[in-house]
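Fold sample X.
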Amino acid sequence: MKYIKNSFLIEKVNLQKLTKKFETPLYCYSYEKLKHNINNFKLNFKSFSPLICFALKANSNLKIIKEIKKLGLGADVVSKGELMKALKAGVNSKKIVYSGVGKTSSELSYAIDKKILLINSESRSEVLEIEKLAKSKKKIVDIGIRLNPNTDAKTLSQISTGKKENKFGVNEKTFIELVNYIKKSKYINLKCLSVHIGSQIINHKPYEKMLRVIDKLIRKINYKFEFIDLGGGMGISYQESKKKLNYKKYSHAVKKLLKKHDCKIIFEPGRSIIGNTGILVSKVIYIKENQTKNFIILDAAMNDFMRPALYGAKHRIIPLNRKREISKKTYEFVGPICETTDKFLTINKFQKLNEKDLVIICDVGAYGSSLSSNYNLRTKPVEILVKGSKISVVKKRQKLKDLV
């Protein structure tokens, strides 16, 4: 993704031409960036060859999941729908882990029937429900228990999952009680200790603290786990100068744990795989200036891209075509939805824009299309995957008549 002669290209495709054919707003993904991210992730942790399960909640586009599967990844799912999507994409059932605090009996039954690698249980009640279903099906089910390690990931409060006040996992006391219960069960096989402390983590130290909690607990209960599922949460840089997660230090910390406990590591990355592969292209509908604020009103809105409205996430906005003339005004980039939170970013000294100009919202591959909605009865955008000079429509734009 780069400018050539002041026009933005994804791989070998000129976005200006793309928008003329498919209109805006549109999502566009780079296959080469996706491939690079996956290979880079594997390279950083190659010394212990983890099972890498892509978190479908980050991006559930079927054709993109197929590409991720071809590049060797499994799937981390949190609903029956995501499990069905992973299987439809051809992901091997023995490379699928199922997480989530509220799996229904129907969802658990489906997962058991599909013989997936692990159901990571998050409560005593869920363990008992799995046992009941397993008994009725006369099967032995492999599960993990998700520990809440009471570790602050130092990320946004809305995406923190590892503190004691969060709804996820069980505390140490309940974990030990469940281990002892499952030892006596004829229908449950405890294979995994699972943790996940949050999302968009860019400091390795919370991970190190989490690993120390795991080490202490395993030594305390003296139980041999086949897998340790460390979840995901690896952050990316949304601003050009922002700090990035040090994978080498995280890898070193995991290796220290593995010297004490011989287990297979599972990772569940989402954002770090898909986040910076995608952009959202939008057109300026109107430029509205008043006494206190100046607005760039785009044809993309919070229904297309929810992260800024949901938890104040800041994504870079750049022009599709670069010009020399810079405006001295401060502009707030907003969408047309009837909510004050329908805004993306406030920028000083952006290049001078005209109505119908095109802009790019960067790094939207994760939690972009997957969080999109039809709020205000708006159609979801077209999604395009670029491989070199080849363009594939991986999801068609919704038609308004179908919604109505």
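Fold sample Y, listed below.
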Amino acid sequence: MLKDSNRADHLLRLGAGSACPGERIEPAIELVEKGNIDYIIFDSLSESEMLAFERHKMSQPGEGYDTYTERRLRRIWPECARRGTRIIGNMGAANPRGAQELAIEVARDLGLGGRKVAAVLGDNVLSSIRELDPIVNETQERVSVFGDRLIAAHAYIAADPIVEALQQGADLVITGRVGDASLFLAPMIHAFGWKADDWDLLAKGIVLGHLFECAGQVTGGYFADPPYKVVPELHRLGFPIGEISADGRMVITKPPNSGGVVSPATCAEQMLYETDDPANYIEADVVADFSDIGFEQVGLDRVAIAGTVRGKPKPEMLKVNLGVREGFRAEGTVFYAGPGAYERAELAADVIRKRLEQVTHLKADALRFDFIGISALYGPTTAADKPPWEVGLRVAGRTQERAEAWKIMHELETIDNNGPAAIGRGLRSEAITEILGYYSTFIPREMVDTEVIVKEA
């Protein structure tokens, strides 16, 4: 293992610890205890999750980071400290400094005083976006059209500040909105001293990061589709490990005797995940061309990245994730069962619709009725030849005012006693939520100033 020896003749071993905020912790523990890894890397952010953390920060100003952070660190950090495994993650989300302070408290509580915790700042570019007023990709209008409804703007920053944090000796690096694949590229640059313009090596690192950003998806998660694609012991799915050489050779594997599978097929499927143009995969660090990539099985659950991966100079503009207030969503479900379940669900939908339109005079931007098991996924269809014995009526609406959203919830809450016979309702715990719409734009790279703050526990 490398363990920061910074020797080019060693393998660097990276483990992917998560694909979402509330990820299962057992695979991460297994990576640390059995994976012999130098780094464990946690990805907590998608576009929607970033906005969810912004929403949380709006209601709880001291928070806005991945709420799973404390549990995760308490479970893995002592063993990471014992083995010299460093931790990188974008769990800082909308509040990296808050997550840093939390991590320092956890370290002290665990008896890990002296650990260095870095916070990477600079992705919050709201003020710069307001000043620049760029074109919004989805609307082709200026950002200023959103007015005060624009409440968040986060740029996808590159690996550079993470590398800086590692060079300062950080044991834990916490970021906000960084390119997912950049989380994995950073330790490669740090370990091997890859140059900022060695585009081919950087592209190879980004490719591995892309394969690993969804953790278990490359080891059989989301891949399983019996009887055509069988994944052994999926219930104890192991997460991926990358073995990287200084010259860019890479092998994908997983902890020994863990569940799941690593094969050319699992790698190929993940390679195509969220990919538009394989010849121009744009990241903040490099534009990767993996149109000639291949995967070669070189052992049990060991796949080498083959073919040719090329890199092109990094883009001059960085993508920015925008969050815009767009009203409120009300959502709930009522279940019907037994003979005539579908017909009673249809009647309930008709009753609710008429009450909202004719009695309460609902003002809604959108209102929809889905019959779970009949039309929820594929749109309006006819009932199956054999009448269903269980149907869920899902009602969802979008309004500008919270009071209007409550009208929808009120009708859902009272339909049991004022409509056809149901078996009970399964309303979401947060039945009314404020909508933060996702949009995107671009900002010149030079307008994004990053900062690394390192604190000792």
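Sample Y note: The radius of gyration is 24 Å.
Also: The chain has two domains: 12-122+157-315, 324-435.
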